[in-house]
Amino acid sequence: MVKETGYYDLLGVRPGASLDEIKRAYRRLALRYHPDKNPSEGERFKQISQAYEVLSDAHKRALYDRGGERAMKEGGLGGRGGGSGFGSPMDIFDLFFGGGVRMRGRADRRGKTVVHQLSVSLEDLYNGSTRKLSLQKNIICRKCGGCGVREGAQRRCPKCHGSGMEVRIHQLGPSMIQQIQTVCSQCQGQGEWIRPRDCCLTCNGRKVVREKKILSVHLDKGMKDGQKITFHEEGDQVPGLEPGDIIIVLDQKEHPVFRRSGDDLIVRREISLADALCGCRQVIRTLDNRTLLVSSPPGDVIRPGDLKCIPNEGMPVYRSPFQKGKLILQFEVKFPEPGWLPTDRLRQLQGFFPPQEEVMATEDTEEVELSDYTAHGGPGRRPNTGEAYHEDDFEDGMRQHVQCQTS
Ligand SMILES: [Zn+2]
Ligand SMILES: [Zn+2]
């Protein structure tokens, strides 16, 4: 009964399929072969759209069922619009995915997301700031509105009337014809062909122009290294697509004084042994240029590597900037050089410390002196082993014992 099944085959449905079945088939295929997702399948997308356009319309479908594709060309589609042929696949797609459903398809219809890195200082992140970022992006030509042609000029390809396809009919015999459908040689299947003299002078027919764009990047107090700031729909504009996003990723430069750890700031301080024992005062210049005079409580002893902190002098908490982390001081103690005090004065100094435990030499002790140890090239050590004692230094029994412990 049905003359040709080509359109049904394209959608993968039976000739007797219901409208619902046809819609379902189109939705599935149109999303799969949409040029955004599948740029090499533009022709397939067009064919699917044409098949759907015919089969979803009861009148066109009846015409197609009776006379096949040829009947469509002759009386069905061509007759009405003065040879206009099929509608644009994109229009069919938009019409189909219009409204609520289209929101789901939105991600498939968007331009590329562009990622930029922005170098920021710790001061920027402490105080907050606004940075200007200059970049180049494509915007839709304002002169032609993104169509690429001069006002009033013809866009549709004259050869294929915008379908992107050419159909050649060969008479094979008195009652036999052969139709060959090929991609339009004039427009390469685009359906659009613009005479060089009709091109928009502003964009030279490219539909978009390159423009310098200044983005104001607002850095909130407490933002972190690696944090992303998204500028929605600020990516390259492409006709027919929603622009993608621009994503700015913060890259914090190393600070000469402070190191950040979450909301805390760490500062390394070297103090003298006297300060470590007797108490010390430190001046710290904050990231917002205040001066803090920090003193340790009298009687406190600071040991090498000790951590002390000042509450609420760290980084501001992101989105809660009145709250701050801790400022942590990491102390290194600088010891005096050998021979810094004459021996007699040392004995005096000793008087301030708790008495030492008396160690007496007896007949069976040998007196030895300590010398400086260096890891590399010292007597009896192998260079570059990274260990104070090489394995061979231990007796077998000792080694076994060590292995037992570690296993
Ligand atoms: Zn233009
Ligand atoms: Zn063409």
TrEMBL record:
SMART domains named in the record: DnaJ
Gene3D superfamilies cross-referenced by the UniProt entry: DnaJ domain, Heat shock protein DnaJ, cysteine-rich domain, Urease metallochaperone UreE, N-terminal domain
Keyword set, alphabetical order: Chaperone, Lipoprotein, Metal-binding, Prenylation, Repeat, Zinc, Zinc-finger
PROSITE patterns: DNAJ_1, DNAJ_2, ZF_CR
Ranges annotated as CR-type zinc finger: 128-212
One Pfam family of this chain: DnaJ
All residue ranges annotated as the J domain in the record: 6-68
GO MF terms, alphabetically ordered: ATP binding; Hsp70 protein binding; unfolded protein binding; zinc ion binding
Segments of skewed composition (Basic and acidic residues): 388-399
Segments forming domain CR-type: 128-212
Region (Disordered): 372-407
A biological process term (GO) from this entry: response to heat
Annotated protein name in UniProt: DnaJ homolog subfamily A member 1
Native organism: Zosterops lateralis melanops
